[in-house]
Amino acid sequence: MELHALTALQLGEKIRAGEVSPVEAAQAALDRVRQEQGRNNAFITVLGDAALSEALETEKQLRAGARLSPLAGVPMGLKDNICTKGIKTSCASKILGDFAPPYDATLVQRLRAAGGVLLGKLNMDEFAMGSTSETSFYGPVRNPWDLTRVPGGSSGGAAAAVAAGECWYAVGSDTGGSIRQPAAYCGVTGMKPTYGTVSRYGLVAYASSLDQMGPIARTAADCAAVLDLIMGRDRRDGTSLEVESGGLLAGLTGDVRGMKIGLPADCFGEGLEPEVRACVLAAADVLRARGAQVEEFALPIMRYVVPAYYMIAAAEASSNLSRFDGVKYGWRAEGYEDLTDLYSKTRTEGFGSEVKRRILLGAFVLSAGYYDAYYKKALQVKAVIKRAYDEAFEKYDLLLTPVAPSTAPRLGESLDDPLKMYLSDIYTVPLNLAGLPGLSMPCGFDGGGMPIGAQLIGPALGEAKVLGAAHAFQLDTDYHTKMPKGGDAQ
Amino acid sequence: MKITEEMVDTISALSRLKLPEEEKVRMAGELERILEYVEVLNTLDTAAVEPMSHVFPVKNVFRADVVEPSADRRDLLRNAPIPDEEAFLVPKTVE
User: Fold this and answer.
1) What biological processes does GO assign it (chain B) (predicted)?
2) Do A307 and B91 touch (CB under 8 A)?
3) Cβ–Cβ under 8 Å, residues A202 and A104
4) How far is B31 from chain A (nearest CA, A)?
5) Catalytic residue among A79, A121, A382, A465
6) Predicted complex ipTM exceeds 0.90
7) Could you tell me the domains of chain A?
8) Where are the domains of chain B?
9) Cα–Cα distance measured from residue A444 to residue A273, given in angstroms and rounded to the nearest whole number
10) Active-site residue among A154, A155, A240, A414?
């Protein structure tokens, strides 16, 4: 079996057994990237020699007997909004230019300490705003399953790179579905953990109350292994929770007997493509066959989740992105007359149109006279949404829903109609509003051969349950083992 | 709610953005459609609901006031479009 077809944990095992060296793994990954990058554009920055020397360092540590982690020496990629010391971190925006952060995100420090080998930085929607990874200043990412289709977004490069076998796992960020939806579109597994469990220190902020980082990999077990490394309290993130890290991978048993899983009827109605519905319901049957109790229930707050989300996300974005002004980082426009003009010119020429739309929307809902009607209202609705999920989890251990209403659209189909694009986030955004963990796992293909994802949702800090059910599902199915035909096969 | 070009001008000024005329018209239309859609929130009675900004009951987080080295100034200035040895440079702001 070729290395790129292995899961991250399988490769990690071969590395620990001495069958494959970290340098060999990194070289194999770089060869694969060289082959695929021109097709899917998943990377913004590829680290050649730096990746190899990091791999060599890990190799030396392993030879000296260091235990590191189950993923030691396994090459990975990071979304380009995660700060990496001395390595360009662009957020896929023109305005950040060649910004190379003076520090590593906490998560990067943790992965490196565990023997992680960074291959490069992954393409995305500009500032993580989008559902297609087409708004990147560095050109759109393409779906490895069909290069005429989008990989989803905003962590589209992360999902595409894992799907194409360019890296064994990646870390993305998820503000309204940006890990889970591209994972679904690309046929891989992705998880947004509970808000506050992974330090946001070093993640370039989009909407701070909703942003959370998490893994994209082939399997739930791989995701558990990554989360074991990156979760945990960090004093540099005031919203990070006192949680124990580790133990998720070891806790995967595949046993879901007696587990109660709720299917919110409001997530299976109008707007959902029949093929997606059929595959997600079939996933419920797989879990039922393993001993889970599955039943439908009503979750009528679904009609409020997208509007509440976009009000809150835009408001926070307009505030967070005010720091990009052409003074402190990256790129500055030319030909300005005074300081205000410098700001305006730089921001007008430096931000793409989706980012500008959200900044303006946010400035509007926060402005005098409209704050109560829009922003405060959205925060009240958020409380109602949170309560609805709290009540659901009094009855159920987990919820199961689709990830997105359809499979991946073609490039160029979504951006003309922003509202329509926003509406497609309906199944993923409520988890960010309520702070809940959610996982997207491959559960089938549509008639055109495009992957379909199912979403498992857990109560706050219910990562073990979510991963447990996903692992159980993957023991009985092989959707997660399928790979798109690569350049070598065509 | 009607979004006029003047309103787009106001929020653009607040956001330090300058949209070209044709983009202004398009943006006004898009914002109007989005806000129209958001009206659905008003069908939910929230009179008795406290606005929720943070989802978990995390209170003020304190730490000991210990001096630690912070980032090196030269490292921070390195990313600026136009720095000198010790500062970010911008056009003169006070005549």
Assistant:
1) glutaminyl-tRNAGln biosynthesis via transamidation; regulation of translational fidelity; translation
2) no
3) yes
4) 7
5) A79
6) yes
7) 11-258+481-489 (3.90.1300.10)
8) 5-43
9) 13
10) A154
